[in-house]
Specification:
Elements lengths: L1 E8 L3 H12 L5 E3 L2 E7 L2 E7 L6 E9 L2 H13 L4 E9 L2 E9 L5 E10 L9 H7 L8 H7 L21
Parallel strand pairs: 1-4, 5-8
Antiparallel strand pairs: 1-5, 2-3, 3-4, 6-7, 7-8
Amino acid sequence: MKRFHVHLHVEDLARSIGIYSKLFAAEPSRVESDYAKWMLDDPRINFAISTRGARPGIDHLGFQTDEPAKLADMKARAESADMALLDEGETTCCYARSEKHWVTDPQGIAWEHFHTLGDIPVFSEGQSADAASACCTPEAAATPAEASVCCTPTPRGKPISVPVKASTSCC
C-alpha cells in the first residue's frame, strides 16, 4: 500500500502545528524543534511541515510505500516515463532512515518515492541536530544561496539538470 506525501515549509512551526492539528482533527505523530509530521489514515497521507526552507510553501510531493517491491515498481514506472531520476538508495532525512529516489515532473515539482526503514534522533545523520537546525533555518542565512551552501552536507536528492524550485531541506 502507498501513502501520499506532502512536505511544506512554514514560517511559524507552533502556529502551523495548531492549525493543521485542528484541520486534521489529530495531533502530529512526530514533533521536533524544526519539523512535524502527521501520518493520517483518512485520507492516507504523510503530511510533513518544517522550517528548513528558504520560503513558505510546497517543497515536494511524493509517495511512501509499505514494501520495498512497491518502491521498485515506482522506480521502474519513472524510468519508463523517461523522467530524470536520482536514486539515493538508503539515506537519512526528516528524522528517518529510508530507501528513496527522486523524480521531477514537467512543472519542476520534485517527487520523492521512499520506503521508511526506521526513525533516527536527528534530522539527518552526519549532521548534529544543533548544527542542522542552526544552519538550515531561513534566519541562519541572509539569502537562499547562503542557506544552500550551509546545508551542503545534507542536500535533498532532487534530480540534477532538471529545473526545480530552490530549497534547503532534504525531505
